Amino acid sequence: VTDASSVKRRYLALWFPFLPIDRLRQEEAGEAGRPPEAPLVLVAKQRGALRLGAACPEAQRLGLAPGMTLADARALVPDLAVAEMDESADRHFLKRLGQNCIGWSPRVSLDPPDGTTLDIAGVEHLFGGERGLVAEVEEVMARIGLTVRLALASTAEAAQALARHGKGQAGDERAAIRALPVIALGLDAEATTALTRAGLKTLGDLASRPASALAARFGMAAVTVLHRLLGEEQAPIATLSSPEPLHFERRFAEPVALQSSIAACFADLLREAGGHMEQRGLGARRFVLTLFRSDGASHRLEIATGLATRDSAIALRLFDERIAALADPLDPGFGYDRISLFLPQAEPLSAQQPELDGEEKQAAALADLVDRLSTRFGAGSIRRLVPQDSHLPEQAQLALPAIEAPMPVEWPAPPEGEPPLRPLFLFDPPQPVEVIAEVPDGPPHRFRWKRKLHEVRLYEGPERIAAEWWRRKGGENGPGEGKGKAGLTRDYYRVEDMRGRRYWLFRHGLYEEKTAPRWYVHGLFA
Amino acid sequence: MRVVSFPTRHRVPKLEASAGRLGLTVLEGLVGGPARARVHEVYVEEAEDAAAAGGFAMALAAGMAGKPHPVLWLRSRRAAGLGGMLQAEGWRDLGGRPGKGLVSILPDTMALLRAAVEGLRCPALGAVVMEGWGRMRELDLTASRRLSLAAEKSGMPLLLLRIDPLAGGVRAFCGAAGQRAGPSLFRCDLVAPAWRPFRPELASGVGP
Predict the structure, then answer these.
(1) What are phi and psi of A41, to 5 degrees?
(2) Structure confidence by residue, pLDDT tens digits, A349-376
(3) Which of A317, A431, A479, B8 is most buried, by the most CB atoms less than 10 A from its CB?
């Protein structure tokens, strides 16, 4: 019988010292937010005051530390960028990081709020030893913009303590652990102070005393933690569960090049996947089919559906679309020796009712159309218009890919008895017009657009639309170029020319804001 | 060929598009027959009328689709660039239901035609509008036949919006009108290049 404790365990601890900051920066990377060079702190309400929950390295260099009140921090660093702390988002982020770490080791546990531990016993040789694994983890984390500290040890606790409190991995692991400060025990502040007052500064100092004295003063828990840190005792770890991936493949003894055999293999794989998903109550939203050619080349085909499905007929039809839309057709060459199907995105899907009533059938037919068009022409080619909460006309609607917004939305009803207030077609950006015979408070009598002169016969307006001054720095000082930076107000007119065509014109800027405001046509009415 | 008489002009009075008034019944009144399951073409007089023609097609499609069924609006990338982006509020003002509808922006005419056939085959839709700018060389006789067959088969109307003022020659819808002794008479609806539809009576040959 093999003694379980005789297996040499190794743990790799990852500590993200700036997890909330890094997460926020990563989320804001896409949009134009605050300038990245300003020191950033995150605040949360604690004990009746806004206190710093996290501070970026730049802010910490300037003397800011978590726990400080925001007022004190602002006094030290006036141009501070401040954002709200979001603990649940951080928790989700850490969980997702942990899930992704399963790629390195199947046994991953989380150390909230900002660490994960990987059990790497028996997997490190896949990455070229411990050093290779550490280098790879560091490289991946740097690529996604996360600050990380790594440490290796023979227990999970020791690895985490070394990552958080260690002074670099120099020489002997045992000596490094013994040199850790007593704060690594994780006792409360009072107990830590008591230990340092007694002259016990490192774990080595503690380990050299009899355990009974420590237990008498600080409880048995302290002794257990010490034993675990020193590697004398293994604690069980709670690992993240990793669901079995939906991955199916066929290998052929002889390469297959015949169109009909390949098609039969597709159908077979999809049927098998469908059966598996039915057992687990899942439906897939994305299907990835990879064809491995015998000369080493591989083709990857990917389809996505708006609603989760496990119907092999639907997936097969979409793959047909995908293949038909390829720029250069699939070339089997000397044949494929392996075909694999991977379903990266699966969602719960309850058992299907065989009898569908009319409405559900309609929804399914529409989803099918959306999937086909998205597969053939790209997800962005078919869109649904969704209202946005903005009074700026160019931002009042969002055209979402229909595959991501499968449900219809309701637009508010128009005001009764009014001619249309908003145009049918909108130009973004607005097109400049040349104005002739301008009057101070009204639309021009004549304007030239696309080299044609239009005589204004009727008009309605102005409808005054202010810029979003609350989004701009210094915008609260009011509009106008000289006074503040709120942006220019627009005066919109609905005008009709002699031929009966209707235009939506606006003057960019009031006369008091700008000396010679420009005119634009923003839209066309039907 | 000798024109015998110019009777009344065949011109539709001004149509008003508000909340579903323009629809199947109007079109059926105009064409004198069932208007679903057909391909209808809407041309512009001049390129500046693109928005008006778009609104007409939109109102017509909304009326034809009715309440429960969505409209699929197919546009080319060129249309979105030249004609502006389709606005849900304007769509709604014309009696449509933009929240249910789908807008598709496609790279070229071939893609438009293919998507139109796909759309016509989908039983959940109420109407398909295809907006094409310019000559659309790919829309040849085969393609238009394919579209009308697809429309006939599914019973769905397709509105073909052609923003191409140069597309005109004379279009004549002809029939026999021999009610009098004399030269042979035709009954004829002409849509002339100047875009003045009229219905003259024409006579050909030299009478006794």
Answers:
(1) -130, 155
(2) 876 665 556 677 788 888 888 988 888 8
(3) A479
